[in-house]
Amino acid sequence: MEGRKNTEADILKAAKKIFIQHGYAGARMQAIADEAKINKAMLHYYYRSKDALFEKIMDGAVDLMSKQLVHALSGDATVMEKMEKMVSNYTDTIIKNPYIPIFILNELARNQMNFQNRLLHNLQQNNIFNDFLSQVISEQQKGILQPVPVPHIMLTCMSLIVFPHIAKPVFLKIFEMSDKDYMNMMEERKAYIMDFLKKSLVL
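== TetR family transcriptional regulator ==
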């Protein structure tokens, strides 16, 4: 049983690497099998098609990111405390799972409706966005927050978190940084993001 789990983990790790390098269209099952150091027959035993393998990885990525969002925006904390938790949780999650932003971009380009349905299904199981929207409006009416629409708040926050990870190869080259230095910068960036958001949103 342990061997089966290890083999599947090796397959998923290899598939993430190949999908990131070549995209969905360019990825080949043989390349994934070679990367996982198994034969193609063994790969097909676990996943009968490239689509099934991609869906497995996407389900895991969307589920992970959805849970982080629900965890950050739930509870009795203030809006800015929830935003700080979201920045920290999402940054940590992407650092540990750097394939996620590229996978989501690939899926949006390949099958936008499928991705939307998958994400909405996860989030609609909670009333998280309606609750957060109500809380933002309440704090705006109390004079705690600037009257910035929630979509702008969420887009700004997610862009600040995600884009640096998508652009990582370019920034490493431009600034001649090591991977370790870049990851350290991402840790430091949590504070910079929150400072920017507080100055933009808090009255």
